[in-house]
Amino acid sequence: MDDQFLRVAVIGAGAAGLVAAAEAAQRGASVLLIEKNSKAGVKILMSGGTRCNLTHHADPREIAEAFGHARRFLQPALGAFSPADVVQMFHQFGVPTKVESTGKVFPVSNRALHVRDALVRRASEAGVRIETALGVLALMPAAGGGWKIATAAGEIDADRVIVTAGGRSWPGCGTTGDAYAWLRGLGHTIIEPRPALVPLTGGADWMHQLSGVTVEDCLVSVIDARLQKRKTIGNRRSSFLFTHFGFSGPAAMDISGSLTAAESFNDRQVLLDLLPEWDRSRLRQWLTDRLRDGGRQRVASRLAKRLPMRLASALAQHTGADCTIAELPRNVCGRICESLKQLPLDVHGTLGFDKAEVTAGGVALGEVDPRTMQSRLAAGLYIAGEVLDVDGPIGGYNFQAAFSTGRAAGIAAAQR
Ligand SMILES: Cc1cc2nc3c(=O)[nH]c(=O)nc-3n(C[C@H](O)[C@H](O)[C@H](O)COP(=O)(O)OP(=O)(O)OC[C@H]3O[C@@H](n4cnc5c(N)ncnc54)[C@H](O)[C@@H]3O)c2cc1C
């Protein structure tokens, strides 16, 4: 690298690293972006079912709120680089976007490849040198100031380093949690990484028979089972998928983080409300209504008016309601209502980091300046993206956080 420029090394060419590198280079730094995979942005390519849900149509405050404990930390970065700014960035690089009814923002082309290519082009045009197939092994302060980065191909010197190496989820993408050890070695606290936005395992056999059935609108709640008084720890209203191993879909995955945060899955109860817009009395009324046909309709057929047929039949069987509305005993009607409003899912695990869309935990936020992403423990060290203790819900929130924190780090690292 040319000595007259500030030499900035960025470790990890994912969403955060590509933006950080471009921002630093645009401000005159000589930037090297180091990526262990043979190409940049591998996770972007597979995101959103290869459509890449690149942000969420919301204002920065709403985005920050969705990050729970990290909301305050993220506010400055999100305020400086909002979802609207992200959309503009992609428009400028030839990727028009669209907002879907859920608020998720996708490229009009529905191709994650276009998102990844735009970020790579933006970085390259800013002058970033991208070294792929180069894994970083260690990061240490240099004797005379600055940083030494150890790789299999030798050592790299830099004045400043931005760590954007991601978390531990979906390790096949290169994210194997390497940076935790380096950062711990530099004095940082690593909040125990755990899988989040991950499918859940468990459920009864009759639920597994429903593999492939989706309920478009339901409410999944996580209850603290240790307390006598029911306390809801988290909930999510969205679509839900039964699988052969348990449960998936946005509602199940979104609450997975509050389950993996517990010491034991036995401490948590997961309840499914299959008809969240109706209360019990409305449900009972609907289930027992005989006005039209004198009650000749079968219970399963009545349930199928509001639920997928396979689920309706399984629920009727499971609750002992294999009968007509007229024949439905009062107590069985109560049982169905209970199952519709509070079906216990008996979750006992998750598919783990292998299938987790994000990693919860990571670098403790109190040790990082939220405006610049500079480490409060080591000058010239910047930390951005999922390696930080931030994890948001499904819907484009996680890319938004990676872009915003990456940009903040890139700008700050290029400043003399
Ligand atoms: C299947 C899947 C689908 C997803 N879909 C969406 C979605 O649609 N919308 C959304 O908002 N979020 C989505 N996410 C989450 C999102 O991908 C991440 O939150 C985001 O990529 C985090 O960005 P990052 O730059 O911090 O880390 P990453 O994108 O994970 O990038 C980190 C990079 O660092 C590299 N690296 C790691 N260690 C080293 C090392 N030692 N040396 C050199 N390089 C290293 C890795 O190879 C990787 O390329 C999805 C995740 C998955 C797994």
Blueprint (SSEs and pairs):
Layout: E1 7-11, H1 15-26, E2 30-34, H2 42-50, E3 55-56, H3 60-65, H4 71-80, H5 83-92, E4 97-99, E5 104-107, H6 112-126, E6 129-131, E7 136-141, E8 147-151, E9 154-158, E10 160-163, H7 178-185, E11 190-196, E12 200-202, H8 205-208, E13 214-224, E14 232-242, E15 246-248, H9 249-260, E16 268-273, H10 280-288, H11 299-303, H12 309-318, H13 330-341, E17 343-344, E18 347-350, E19 358-363, E20 381-383, H14 397-413
Parallel strand pairs: 1-2, 1-10, 2-6, 10-20
Antiparallel strand pairs: 3-5, 4-5, 7-8, 8-9, 11-19, 12-15, 12-18, 13-14, 13-16, 14-15, 16-17
Helix pairs in contact: 1-6, 1-14, 2-6, 4-14, 10-13
Strands side by side in the biggest sheet: 17-16-13-14-15-12-18
Oligomeric grouping of the chains:
single chain
Query: Tally the helices: what do you get?
Result: 14
Radius of gyration, in Å, reads 25 Å
Unreliably modeled segments: none
> What is the CATH topology of the largest domain?
FAD/NAD(P)-binding domain
End-to-end C-alpha gap: 17 Å
The distinct ligands, each listed once, are: flavin-adenine dinucleotide
Largest sheet: 7 strands, antiparallel
CATH top level label of the largest domain: Alpha Beta
Strand content: 15-25%
CATH A-level architecture of the largest domain = 3-Layer(bba) Sandwich
Shape: elongated
Q: Quick check: average pLDDT?
A: 96
CATH superfamily of the largest domain: FAD/NAD(P)-binding domain
